[in-house]
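Memo to structure team: turn this sequence into C-alpha cells by end of day. - J.P.
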Amino acid sequence: MAPKKRRRGKHIPQRTCIGCRTVSSKWELIRIVRTPDGVQIDPTRRLPGRGAYLHANRACWEAAFKRRAFARALRTTLTQADIQRLRAFMETLPAEELPREEPESEANGG
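Reply from structure team:
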C-alpha cells in the first residue's frame, strides 16, 4: 500500500531586507531594480534586472544608505540621480524603527 502524501502549504518566497538584514515574505518588501536606465523602484516586482529588497519603513532605507547596501546588492555604482530618486521615495515612507529581535531569554518567557 502506498504511503499517504502530506499536503504542504503554499510556498511563500522569502527575501532579505538589505537595510535591517531580516528575512521576510517577498510580498512585505519593496523591490529596487537595476536596469540599463539606472536604479529604480519596482512596484510590480516584475521588472527584469538585478533586484534588492527593503522593508517599507524609513529606518531600513536609512540603514541601507549608511551601509552602502544598495550598490553592493545591485552590483553597480549609484549615480547622483539614482541616489536622489531613492531618497525622494524614502521620504514618502513612514518613520518606523528597525525591527528588533527579542533576546532568547525573553522569547522563552524567562
